[in-house]
Write a structure and sequence with these properties.
35% of the residues lie in helices and 14% in strands. It has nine helices and eight strands. With 283 residues, it is of the alpha/beta class. The longest helix is centred in the C-terminal third of the chain and has 15 residues.
């Protein structure tokens, strides 16, 4: 176990009484409020020194209110050090006023416009979407790439067109760990890692495995490959709580990764659990 405060770069909090989250209708176990107090209890023995709130796919019309809600919450817990907001980046140049409004909030460190749910696998290659993402470099904002392994091929082309935007791949690109599918994820991750502006989150690993029967050995080959590709310089731990709770507790998430990384140096471990996160999100 890590015995010092870590940085959690992917924390969800939601209030189903305050906001609407249509995607939760299909996941009854998560379709209730998850508060900061719930998170603190879920951490157990894991010490969290800083947190980055990740947008939760509330209705698009509510996303600015979501940012405002978390900003107010940060006044009660200063460990909330950053916010990654949603924004309609597919609007291209027309999204600029919204980005400027978000940039006015010092807690907003980056944006995420989820790609994985788009039925068109070429959504990320739309000219307006690429223009919207490239705009983030002008405002020193990051972009979280949220996809499944089905999108890797096109995401490689997408990243190639956004060389100045600092990006991070959520949940290791969601490979099919449950069925132990290695390729083409292995080869595509190798290609993604060649872009120096892209980091990768070691998050929600068990969520992509068999929720009830996963083992560390199911996950190990994927993490080993990521270390080989990204090195310890561009890997970042995150909980993805409470989504990750479907398969593992927060202490289990931490211990699983520490076990797989056994043999690495303390400096390398510190990079994964603290330093890289602080550097990437400018905390």
């Amino acid at each position: 176990m890590i015995d010092y405060p870590i940085v959690d770069t992917h924390l969800h909090l939601w209030d189903t009484k305050k906001f609407s989250y249509p995607w939760l209708d299909e996941i009854p176990a998560l379709n209730r409020p998850f508060s900061l107090n719930d998170y603190n209890r879920a951490c157990g023995s894991v010490k969290v020194g800083k947190m980055v709130f990740m947008q939760c796919e509330c209705l698009p019309s509510q996303y600015m209110q979501e940012v405002g809600w978390i900003t107010e919450l940060s006044k009660t817990d200063d460990r909330i050090s950053g916010i990654v907001s949603w924004a309609p980046l597919e609007k291209g140049e027309r999204v600029r006023p919204e980005i400027e409004m978000l940039k006015g909030n010092s807690l907003v460190k980056g944006l995420r416009r989820i790609i994985q749910g788009e039925p068109d696998l070429e959504f990320c290659l739309g000219s307006d979407f690429i223009r919207g993402v490239n705009m983030l470099a002008e405002y020193d904002l990051t972009f979280d790439i949220c996809i499944s392994y089905l999108h890797n091929k096109n995401v490689i082309k997408f990243i190639d067109q956004c060389p100045d935007v600092h990006m991070i791949l959520d949940h290791i690109g969601k490979p099919n760990i449950k069925d132990r599918v290695m390729n083409p994820w292995f080869d595509e991750i190798t290609e993604i890692s060649k872009f120096p502006n892209v980091y990768c989150k070691l998050s929600s690993l068990a969520t992509e495995a068999d929720h009830l029967n996963w083992t560390i050995d199911d996950i190990r080959p994927y993490v080993d490959h990521l270390v080989e590709c990204f090195g310890f310089e561009r890997l970042v731990f995150a909980t993805d709580w409470p989504v990750s709770s479907l398969a593992a507790s927060i202490p289990m998430c931490v211990n699983t990764l520490v076990t797989i990384l056994k043999g690495c140096s303390q400096a390398e471990l510190d990079r994964v659990f603290t330093r890289n996160a602080l550097d990437f999100y400018h905390i």
